[in-house]
Amino acid sequence: MKQSTIIWTVVLVLAGAFLIVRTSTGQMGRAYVIDEQVEPEDSNITWTISKDAAPNQTDTLGFRFSWSRTIGLWVAAFCTLAIFSFLYGDNPLYKLAEAVFVGSSAGYAMAIGFWDGIVTLLLKNLTPDLMRATFMPGIKPEEQANLLFLIPLALGIAMIWRLAPAGGWISRWALAFFIGATAGIRLLAYFESDFVAQIQSTVLPLIALAADGSFDWATSLKNITIVFGILVCTVYFFFSIEHKGAVGAAARVGIWFLMITFGAGFGYTVMGRIALLSGRLEFLYDDWLWLIDPLQKRIGM
Q1: In what helix (H) or strand (E) does residue 70 lie, and over which residues does it extend?
Q2: Whether the predicted pLDDT of 218 surpasses 70
Q3: How far apart are CA 300 and CA 114, in angstroms?
Q4: Are residues 181 and 230 in the same domain?
Q5: How many CB atoms are closer than 10 A to CB 275?
Q6: Who has greater pLDDT, 145 or 88?
Q7: Longest dimension (CA), the chain
């Protein structure tokens, strides 16, 4: 048996024993909800609303153990550890968690897309009376059917036609329309945000004045740096002139600006991933294992 296998086996056995001890003593992995008595407008009727809250509020509100949230807590912890197990190597637990994540995400996206696209937009505008009587009672009574939505209905049916054994070519018309319309809309959006807006953001005063009319050296230095960086980066990408002499020096400075920008972008990405990692570790240590309690949620428990 490999030494690494022995080490990981010992670690897993110790971790399992630790979980058994803490679970048996009730010191981890339990979720509670607050029961708050609410008085409605009619004083003769009362009901109970359960909501997430900290157990340290038990001096004024009672709380109860929640089986559903506890099961969800353990499932989330298991999936988190299964994903982390990829650090050791590809294994069945990681593949299971990956398949669950991809499948649930696809199912959720399909359900949201069906409701937002088919029900909320298409059926609501084609059959408002039927939707008012079934899924969407909040539709105004004066709202009438909009026959223009027969066009997206026909395009949608043509798109699904690709699944039919014959006549798959019909879906090409709907697909071509969808790709062309999406490309045109995205082109305008990107032109506005990535071209026009960026040019407007670089038209800056090199000498900035404060509100009282005095010289603002910090803003002026920032504006000069931005304009200078844009000019030297543009020189680097200008290949009609050989990069020698002053042009070559400006191009080399442009490379420095580009590398600093790429490094900052990469660092920002790493910070985002570290934030996700810290969030999952906080979930494991706080909500699941109860090893830490930074928000003082379990005082007196």
Answers
A1: helix 67-84
A2: yes
A3: 47
A4: no
A5: 9
A6: 145
A7: 89
Number of domains in the chain: 3
In the chain, the amino acid numbered 124 is K
Strands, DSSP E only, in the chain? Answer: 32-38, 47-51, 62-65
Residue 38: band (very low, low, confident or very high) from pLDDT cuts 50, 70, 90: very low
As beta bridge partners, residue 47 has 38
Residue 229 lies in a domain: yes
Give the predicted TM-score (pTM) of the model: 0.70
Residue with the two structure tokens 């020698």: 244
Type of residue found at 277: L
Dihedral over Cα of 207, 211, 217, 223: its sign: negative
Strand partners, 256: none
| Residues 234, 191 within the same domain | no
- Show the domain range for 11: 1-30
Mean residue pLDDT of the chain comes to 86
Polymer length in residues for the chain: 301
| Residue 251 resides in a domain | yes
229-235 contacts, C-beta under 8 A, 24 or more apart: 229/254, 229/257, 230/202, 232/257, 233/257, 233/258
The Cα–Cα gap between 230 and 219 comes to 17
Between CA 125 and CA 258 the distance in angstroms is 50
